[in-house]
């Protein structure tokens, strides 16, 4: 009798195990297929949500000015953002095109002239002698220099071409994200209610508090990282355009990328300063140096003003997020990675600071409705 009971129980266990495995397998397949379908939209939707959270205070102010028309306010902000993206593209493209045409004409005429390096270049520690040698070779015998460094030039040109293609794709992604953000902002009330409900369901009693913390972190990082990077690159770019620095638009873009990645703008500015001292007179180069250094160091004033609003994110967190995001998702990852990692950092720190008593009370509060519903 016992053997028959054990055999029956074993058969039921195997049957339940097989049925559970089939259900889990089907659910896993459904999740994988769903992920493949939504994968192209994850980054633009996520970035659109981040932009919507950051711009929501401005949208509400604009809504009041427009007589309560939130949809119109969101649309205006989205179109303004698209215009802000398009105008620099036109300027940079025009600058690159004009530079390419001028360089092609000079190569065809054989009139390319590169200023010789000064002794100050050779006096630079570690790299001065090598830099002086290479620079002097290009200045005195361009054809021989090009032939000598042809593999490096081809590799650099290929890298730049790939980078330009990636930049164009990123800009298009930004435009799509802005339109998605407009939709989020236009329906912000229902979206906020849904986020609060999901947060409370997932986290528990502190869900709404964590959702508010996430929104504050998004605004802080976008203002303190992206905002500062934009202002800093505009200031440096303005100085370079005023002093007619070659390839000023491209250098400004590099400064912006470095600033997003939390790398010092001086890494980009110092070579330009060396060029100005070799190509211009001392007075012009000194004035340029003072102005561009002030612009490069402006982040030390801007960050405390824009980032110190409720949350304080350590720079290593931003740096790892920006670099990791760029590696995984391209240029847009510079923005997205910093924001996402900052959110996780703030949530983790908040969770660590919670006392065991608070966590136990939260768990009991989450379980109370279920117990009451069972008793009913």
Compact description:
This protein has helices spanning 2-65, 70-109, 119-122, 128-140, 142-148, 150-186, 188-203, 207-242, 248-260, 266-279, 282-296, 299-307, 315-329, 332-353, 356-375. The chain is mainly α.
Question: Which short descriptors sum up this protein?
Answer:
15 helices, elongated
Write down the overall mean pLDDT: 76
Total domain count: 2
What proportion of the residues is helical, as a percent range?
over 70%
Helix-and-strand structural type: mainly alpha
What is the terminal separation in angstroms?
41 Å
| Largest sheet properties | none
Strand residue percentage: under 5%
Run of helices and strands:
HHHHHHHHHHHHHHH
Strand elements, count: 0
Q: Which spans of ≥5 residues are poorly predicted at pLDDT below 50?
A: 369-376
How much is the radius of gyration in Å?
28 Å
Say what oligomer this is. Answer: single chain
Number of helices: 15
Globally, the shape reads elongated
Pfam families: AI-2E_transport (PF01594)
Membrane topology: Multi-pass membrane protein
Keywords: Cell membrane, Membrane, Transmembrane, Transmembrane helix, Transport
Protein name: AI-2E family transporter
If you had to describe this structure to a student in words, what would you say it looks like?
By secondary structure, this protein is an all-alpha fold. It folds into two domains: 71-186, no CATH class; 205-354. 86% of the residues lie in helices and 0% in strands. Helix 8 (207-242) runs antiparallel to helix 12 (299-307). The longest helix is centred in the N-terminal third of the chain and has 64 residues, at 2-65. It is elongated and about 100 Å long. InterPro entries: AI-2E-like.
């Amino acid at each position: 009798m016992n053997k028959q009971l054990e055999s029956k129980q074993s058969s039921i266990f195997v049957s339940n195990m097989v049925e559970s495995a089939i259900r889990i397998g089907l659910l896993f397949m459904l999740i994988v297929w769903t992920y493949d379908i939504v994968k192209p939209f994850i980054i633009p939707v996520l970035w659109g949500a981040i932009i919507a959270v950051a711009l929501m205070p401005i949208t509400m102010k604009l809504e009041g000015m427009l007589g309560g028309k939130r949809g119109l306010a969101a649309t205006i902000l989205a179109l303004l953002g698209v215009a802000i993206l398009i105008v620099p593209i036109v300027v940079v493209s025009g600058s690159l095109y004009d530079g390419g045409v001028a360089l092609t004409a000079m190569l065809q005429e054989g009139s390319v002239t590169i200023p010789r390096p000064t002794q100050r270049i050779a006096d630079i520690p570690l790299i001065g002698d090598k830099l002086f040698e290479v620079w002097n070779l290009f200045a005195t015998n361009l054809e021989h220099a090009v032939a000598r460094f042809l593999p490096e030039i081809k590799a650099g040109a290929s890298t730049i071409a790939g980078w330009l293609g990636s930049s164009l794709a990123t800009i298009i992604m930004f435009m799509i994200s802005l339109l998605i953000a407009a939709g989020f902002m236009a329906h912000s009330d229902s979206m906020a209610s849904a986020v609060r409900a999901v947060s409370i369901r997932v986290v528990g009693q502190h869900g709404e508090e964590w959702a508010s913390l996430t929104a504050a972190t998004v605004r802080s990082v976008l203002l303190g990282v992206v905002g500062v990077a934009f202002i800093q690159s505009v200031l440096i770019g303005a100085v370079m355009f005023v002093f007619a620095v070659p390839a000023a638009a491209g250098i400004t873009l590099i400064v912006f990328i470095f600033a997003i990645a939390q790398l010092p703008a001086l890494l980009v500015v110092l070579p330009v300063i060396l060029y100005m001292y070799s190509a211009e007179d001392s007075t012009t180069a000194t004035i340029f140096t003072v102005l561009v250094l002030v612009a490069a160091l402006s982040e030390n004033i801007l960050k405390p003003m824009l980032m110190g609003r409720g949350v304080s994110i350590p720079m290593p967190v931003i740096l790892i997020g920006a670099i990791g995001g760029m590696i995984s998702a391209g240029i847009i990852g510079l923005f997205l990675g910093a924001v996402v990692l900052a959110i996780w950092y703030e949530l983790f720190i908040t969770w660590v600071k919670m006392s065991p008593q608070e966590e136990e009370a939260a768990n009991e509060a989450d379980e109370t409705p279920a117990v009451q519903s069972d008793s009913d």
